[in-house]
Amino acid sequence: MSDSARAFVPGHVTGFFSAHPDDDPTKAGSRGGGLAIGDGVTVELEPGEGLELNGEAAAIEAVDRVLDALRATARVVVETDLPLGAGFGVSGAAALGTALTTNAVFGRGLSENELVTIAHGAEVQAGTGLGDVVAQARGGVPIRLEPGAPAHGAMDGIPQRRPLEYRSFGELPTEEIIAGDTDELTAAGDRALSALVAEPTLETFMESSRRFAREAGLLTPRVAEVVRDVSEAGGEASMAMLGETVFALGSGLSDAGYDAEQCSLSLAGAHVL
Amino acid sequence: MSDSARAFVPGHVTGFFSAHPDDDPTKAGSRGGGLAIGDGVTVELEPGEGLELNGEAAAIEAVDRVLDALRATARVVVETDLPLGAGFGVSGAAALGTALTTNAVFGRGLSENELVTIAHGAEVQAGTGLGDVVAQARGGVPIRLEPGAPAHGAMDGIPQRRPLEYRSFGELPTEEIIAGDTDELTAAGDRALSALVAEPTLETFMESSRRFAREAGLLTPRVAEVVRDVSEAGGEASMAMLGETVFALGSGLSDAGYDAEQCSLSLAGAHVL
């Protein structure tokens, strides 16, 4: 137990996914592939009340659900340079960071799998994500083979490292999309996963992600144009699920003339600081 | 594919374990708890022949087995500041680093789980380790809940971070011990794991490790004396399995008057550089 604790949780960009609802939130989730990135979220927590996001009072349902599950009353300060609602898993990161820091401050004595399970369930029940939390807990280039929290899910990873770039043009409503009809999306996601499992490389990940974005009907005109520009400049880009955001390997976006944020993969998963 | 590749694999100190032999080397392994540390092993690999360990020609059977499994003929350069044969998992690290770099150089297109499986199987068949490889692939403070490579094993982790110290006084013969009668050792390891699962904290890990070393009859007089000295100075220490090595939380060894190496936990698992 300590007076306060801090945690870092990597951002997570999903390239493709399939949705797998279940009445049990620890079994619900998604299959898919993504990138855990070094631009992430820090959570600082101490006994008290209220949530602050980048210096302003805010509400994040998944965070409230984590605090309820851990029976803690806490002041939670969330800080991130990542764009919000743009496909970087900020809500999942806030939930996971809250679970890790609550465990430390209130001496709950839970394991990493137990804390990930609580944060994953909270995010699923809040309707704000299906697979970011387990990927953010792992780090690297996570492949979600089976949906759900650690006791039910299964993961693998791509053993490559590359610098990355991203550029966000705005938000997309995750909750509406994953609460709607996801049959077509899930069929496209399953095809993308099969291709990636057959050849788990970053190049196949990017290609599968582009095909998924097209087949699932999620590409916006602006994202489609930027992805095309990066391809024409010889690079590899795709769309972050779910945001109006393009990510690219190496300097793909800069090479195509776009202002872009540069970042690295986060080899480490979420952790207390 | 590239001309050469490098990988970093963290060292791994096992505090307690139980041995679980199986005819299938991907199912064989150990349960237990340990620490992945930032002092580790780098492997550089290119097409060619021969293995070099810290600048001298050497033979590591687990490395040869990995190269055989991946049908590669390579020159492997292994470098580490860790003491050899002293409980830091150097052979497992060399095997895992060889798997990661062979995959990169020879374009084998395998996933992280597949490469970990090959390295784990090679280490088990060489008789030089039972659980270091899966722990080194994960990073952090790994708890091995079920033995074996990723398809069969199960892991959790302790969500705490502390600086560490270690001091090695010499080697112990891992192969003889794990090939001998391990019934008593495994009973003690199972009790230690139950205690840690009930309360997955670093303090419980250290206490369970000390009890295991005593109950399994592995404590040498010198290690017992150092662990006692650290306790009397108010610290927490135990014995690395399997080496005549003492590790401690924080500055436990220095506080007791011993010269010690300082290191951090490795939050990242093994990875190509």
From TrEMBL, chains A, B:
Ranges where the GHMP kinase N-terminal domain occurs: 61-140
Function per UniProt: Phosphorylates (R)-pantoate to form (R)-4-phosphopantoate in the CoA biosynthesis pathway.
Similarity annotation: Belongs to the GHMP kinase family. PoK subfamily.
Organism superkingdom: Archaea
GO terms of molecular function: ATP binding; kinase activity
Gene3D superfamilies: 3.30.230.10
Protein name: Pantoate kinase
Class in the EC hierarchy, top level: transferase
Source organism of the structure: Natronomonas moolapensis (strain DSM 18674 / CECT 7526 / JCM 14361 / 8.8.11)
Catalytic activities: (R)-pantoate + ATP = (R)-4-phosphopantoate + ADP + H(+)
